[in-house]
Amino acid sequence: MDCYTANWNPLGDSAFYRKYELYSMDWDLKEELRDCLVAAAPYGGPIALLRNPWRKEKTASMRPVLDIYSASGMPLASLLWKSGPVVSLGWSAEEELLCVQEDGAVLVYGLHGDFRRHFSMGNEVLQNRVLDARIFHTEFGSGVAILTGAHRFTLSANVGDLKLRRMPEVPGLQSAPSCWTTLCQDRVAQILLAVGPDLYLLDHAACSAVTPPGLAPGVSSFLQMAVSFTYRHLALFTDTGYIWMGTASLKEKLCEFNCNIRAPPKQMVWCSRPRSKERAVVVAWERRLMVVGDAPESIQYKQLTIQVLLDRLVLRRLYPLAIQICEYLRLPEVQGVSRILAHWACYKVQQKDVSDEDVARAINQKLGDTPGVSYSDIAARAYGCGRTELAIKLLEYEPRSGEQVPLLLKMKRSKLALSKAIESGDTDLVFTVLLHLKNELNRGDFFMTLRNQPMALSLYRQFCKHQELETLKDLYNQDDNHQELGSFHIRASYAAEERIEGRVAALQTAADAFYKAKNEFAAKATEDQMRLLRLQRRLEDELGGQFLDLSLHDTATTLILGGHNKRAEQLARDFRIPDKRLWWLKLTALADLEDWEELEKFSKSKKSPIGYLPFVEICMKQHNKYEAKKYASRVGPEQKVKALLLVGDVAQAADVAIEHRNEAELSLVLSHCTGATDGATADKIQRARAQAQKK
Amino acid sequence: MAFPHRPDAPELPDFSMLKRLARDQLIYLLEQLPGKKDLFIEADLMSPLDRIANVSILKQHEVDKLYKVENKPALSSNEHKLLACRAAFLFSVDLVNADKLAGRTRKYKVIFSPQKFYACEMVLEEEGIYGDVSCDEWAFSLLPLDVDLLSMELPEFFRDYFLEGDQRWINTVAQALHLLSTLYGSFPNCYGIGRCAKMSYELWRKLEEEEDGETKGRRPEIGHIFLLDRDVDFVTALCSQVVYEGLVDDTFRIKCGSVDFGPEVTSSDKSLKVLLNAEDKVFNEIRNEHFSNVFGFLSQKARNLQAQYDRRRGMDIKQMKNFVSQELKGLKQEHRLLSLHIGACESIMKKKTKQDFQELIKTEHALLEGFNIRESTSYIEEHIDRQVSPIESLRLMCLLSITENGLIPKDYRSLKTQYLQSYGPDHLLTFSNLRRAGLLTEQAPGDTLTAVESKVSKLVTDKAAGKITDAFSSLAKRSNFRAISKKLNLIPRVDGEYDLKVPRDMAYVFSGAYVPLSCRIVEQVLERRSWQGLDEVVRLLNCSEFAFTDMTKDDKASSESLRLILVVFLGGCTFSEVSALRFLGREKGYRFIFLTTAVTNSARLMEAMSEVKA
Hints:
The complex is a heterodimer. Chain A is an alpha+beta fold. Helix content of chain A is 44%, strand content 20%. Chain A has 27 helices and 25 strands. In chain A, strands 3-4-5-6 form a four-stranded antiparallel sheet, with no helix packed on it. Chain A has a four-stranded antiparallel sheet with strand order 7-8-9-10, with no helix packed on it. Chain A has a four-stranded antiparallel sheet with strand order 11-12-13-14. Chain A is elongated, with a radius of gyration of 48 Å. Chain A starts with a helix and ends with a helix. By secondary structure, chain B is of the alpha/beta class. Chain B folds into four domains: 32-139, Rossmann fold (3-Layer(aba) Sandwich), CATH 3.40.50.2060; 141-233 and 480-614, Rossmann fold, CATH 3.40.50.1910; 244-354, Alpha-Beta Complex (Syntaxin Binding Protein 1, Chain A, domain 2); 357-437, CATH 1.25.40.850. Helix content of chain B is 50%, strand content 12%. Chain B is globular and about 70 Å long. Chains A and B meet through helix 11, helix 13, helix 15, helix 17 and helix 20 of A and helix 5, helix 7, helix 8, helix 16 and helix 18 of B. Chain A: GO terms for molecular function: actin binding. Chain A: This is Vacuolar protein sorting-associated protein 16 homolog. Chain A: Its main location: membrane.
């Protein structure tokens, strides 16, 4: 029986503890641990060791070695430290090793010693150097807190989303605080520090002095402080050998203890087992270990979720095990197997000794078309490792061509990106690539690329039409597209140019372009327009009134309406206005003027090329039946009936129609027989019809 | 008079959901800027917005003032500004910059509809105001104009795609189809013709595949979808419309489903904005009718109405009470609508029944049938010489060109010269546009005919030999209209008078002279459930690569949904086409649903191609 309790020691009144070895460490340490910076990751994660030569004499020329071990001491990585002096090491919740250098640079490594990235803690830190640093964990992620040589604190609560906060100054702080720690209260990261007998709490807004409730009197300095992993509890060790334990909010004391050892402890940490109600603080001196505890209410522990567990396995490259767990738990593919495979692929692309072809093939064989796997993500990783060719090969497996584009651009394969973007049918994507290309290539090459891609070309043209007119011109020039160049200058002559000389010049350029385009029609028309513009200008000068921008037809009409018949005729000759048009416009203009005399003279000047029916129509439009009748008599036989109907002479129209024996004309007249007086006429037509049928 | 649907015709899906969706999304966007705000809205979006959310809804969500964006900045006092715009948004840039100059700082939100383009952000950035505004999208791409008509309200689609080759709206089309298939189930049978149709379709399929398949289990409500590019059939869109709804559109311009009737229609001194859709009982009965029937119908209706009013005379008090409380309101409403449409008819008659219109229609029919080409050409020339109307003249020239495979070089030159003399030299650009779009082209000279081509034309025995020669020699986009017309029997053989009161076929929408090509294609493909046997037509349409069929073996489609057909017009459809297909639906027991980038007509097509300085 006694074998169960033999190694249990009492702790307080109702609790016991025992010490036994779970497993032995596999490592073969060459260094004394005391000479190293040591960081152990939470949740039984890896352990990092960095021999710290900078602490000792400055002459140490040997480069230090960074070793990473698993929690059981299996070596995971070992590398020579080539950067600057390191002040502090720590693991993020994602099991990334953060190495805080003296200059405030933080270097980030994976657990296999692979360099990930680095960031800086800001200029203030760089100038004043890092005195001390802590890596801490909150529910938002892992943070870094820095104490600088100027005794100021700078912190970032989440290195994944780096936002630096410089904490307010502690009034009167001349030397480094005797001890300090980070807290996290109400989702805000804070710093608790001790200066002599005083405790200060810093948040991003203020510095406030705080006093722990029930603190024994006589404390002149705090030597050590420890906060529990969940930030709920705090322990303070004073120069009187007194330990205060309470809530981190400093609102409640849990217990106190006087150990009578006044030497500053090397380390003080909270420890407790999962789901245990016991909480204890372990204090360590050089050759002494002390456990101080009490047993109040329960503590909640966050458990690792299955996703985090899988992530941990993936980080340790235990892919088959992870996949088996996924399958066992029947996780949906996207969350489970596909995700693990994607991670595996990302690892695979880093195997530099395997050829691009083999890696690509191996990945495709395993992944196939597994839903939720993004080949472009894997390709991005390959590119990150400097394997551009492999990245391109992997992209080939990406079914959504649009997804390929951003990486291709990043890899400067813009032309390939352009064709992929076009393939995707997403014009926005095409446009993005175009602007990339525009900046990347010289103008000539850019235009050449466009020339082979009609869809992109028209997109870019549309853009230029609205935003960069000059570029549009260059684009046409490059393609020797003289037709469009001509149109471009025509447009310019209307839109851009105010002065008549400028407009004529623009038109001349247009005409030249049209000649080059072998579009003689457009060239001639443009030259005519130049002549017309000049003439209109002259007319305005000589006659007054508005001529500019009228069409040729309207110019002639305006002249006639102004009584300048001679000028109108001259214009018609100069610009080869066809006879028919001239007659129409003269007829209309004279009727508008109600110059019936002149109209009659005009009608008799020669045989009308448009016949005389239009005269009848136009006179009727001006409600002049008298004049209309004059012309009705001159209308040729084919249109006689129409003319007579126009002037309202239904009876005579009937006679003519009967004479013509034309069925269409007869029904036309009949449809006009509406008035009471037309009854006789209608009968007459009906009779004629009947007679025609008899024959 | 209005033809009833066959009793077995399927019910239409409820498209009012689309409106609610758009409205909710708009409200969500408005609420993103809490507090009072001004809404600046681009002129093009004004009418569609009005159909989605009226002023009181906007007020409820604290829109203080509503501005139509003109080119000058308006002064406003509110802290927030919302700008809703299409792709052209330079106005908003000016607005923000004007405020900046005046030293005012406000919150701005630019809402792009139906989608934000990368270029938009870029311009904001270049103008240096990217940081001053927040951007959002109002994915409002489908406006139900009527129970069977959805419009994307993208009139610019036609010019952007068919003239400028700009494909950015295709994505919008694909998104719209995706929305429809999400809401109403996927379409088991798909057909299409035209390059744009094919691209839109493929992009839509891609979207469907990327989706997790939430919609896949849905029972499809719409059994067939047919996509059609406007340039497959320009002819129909270029014809004068003679069914009532089309004629109202040609005469008064229907905008976003409503029309402004001027004083000459309302016979008062005010204009009246009238919503034209199936809810207007009078309109619903005449919308698809040939105009020649409408007046008679309306007067009959007026007589009936009078008779119903007259019933009052013999009533006792109780009956009178009933009459007043139950029937009178309906009768009055009908009365009001009736007098409006009678007014509209009168106004149309005044404009259209003149000799000129008869001649015009006669010429159009001659062009469609391909006789008296010289006479028609002279008619067009006279039309131009007399400066009747620049848009009409242009339309006739295009109709001549397409039906004749391009103008002969002599006519091409002389008509253009005449046109420039009449309507101004800047139309040189219009002609360049029309040629690019394939609407007005020149026949290549006959001597380019190669030996092979002449051999082929010898093999053709019918009268079309000459035309085929033309087709070979023409390098530009060829219309081959005549051959297609013959193949598809577009010009009905008429013995005696075509009875417009009891139409036999879809040709009634053009007075019995012509079956709309687009509608005939839809009819033929639906009949065959494929393009089989239409190879020659497809070839003549130059669409060999772009005619597709895609049938999913989906037995979930009920026989009812299989008779519900969605026809998608890319580049616009006309009311005549809508009427023709509605007629076809009634004949065959189908129900057609129309989705168009915008409702169009000949004038709108021509204006889109015109390039006259403002």
